[in-house]
Amino acid sequence: MTNALPATASQSVRAERAFTVDALAESLGRRISDGEFEVGTWIRQAKLAEEYGVSRTPVALALSRLEAVGVVERIANRGFRVRLPTTRDVMEVVEVRALLEGHAAFLAAERISAAQLERLRAAVKQFREVVSGLQEGRPEGWARSRWHEANALFHATIFEAAGNRQLKTSSDLLHNRLPRNATWSAMRADIRLLSQNANQHEGIALAIDLREGDRARRLAIAHVETARDIMCAHLEELA
């Protein structure tokens, strides 16, 4: 858990200066969902106001909207932080996410293109590079950013290859309850867990490459369930 706003805000965000509360809430929600703000991170409203070129009032209103849908939580006398999910949240979200990601992997094995396969392979390579980098002493911030990037590429490519927009829309809705990269916070740069995670991604990619849809489904479900177990153990420690 950290008190600092991540320094990875995009140039496009810095360049924009006219934001409505709706646009702010959408932008912040997307950044949280994508893992730019870790679960439990305190939100520095003054820093966000400066970054978006607005006063603190619309930032506070945008955060209140995100609070209403369960993305952030307000702590008395301290402000807002990215919401810590409960064990029940994790169990319920993962139960649905496993079905969606499993079916997406099954469909991807039937429909994936050569270009999409190359993107999966590139993501797997990047997972491996993160593990190697940490073993060589690279900083955790570098590893986290690279891992988030690879994770987003891998899963977005599978849903794209599945060719079913409703599957992706349904999956995206779940990220209000549990951000895409919440697993990283639970793994905490543990090389053993990261290696296991990379192996699972590689296994899914190989099954899709071999057009083994049933196997791809099973591996995708197992991958999500492993993440569930890691996150639940982490939440128990925090409790």
From TrEMBL:
User: Which keywords accompany this UniProt record?
Assistant: DNA-binding, Transcription, Transcription regulation
Q: Does the keyword DNA-binding apply?
A: yes
Q: Which Pfam families would you find in this protein's record?
A: FCD, GntR
Q: Does the keyword DNA-binding apply?
A: yes
Q: Which residues form the HTH gntR-type domain?
A: 18-85
Q: Which domain of life is it from?
A: Bacteria
Sorted alphabetically, which InterPro entries does this protein's record hold? GntR_C, TF_FadR/GntR_C, Tscrpt_reg_HTH_GntR, WH-like_DNA-bd_sf, WH_DNA-bd_sf
Which PANTHER family does this chain map to? Answer: GLUCONATE OPERON TRANSCRIPTIONAL REPRESSOR, TRANSCRIPTIONAL REGULATOR, GNTR FAMILY
Task: Report the protein name in the record.
Answer: GntR family transcriptional regulator
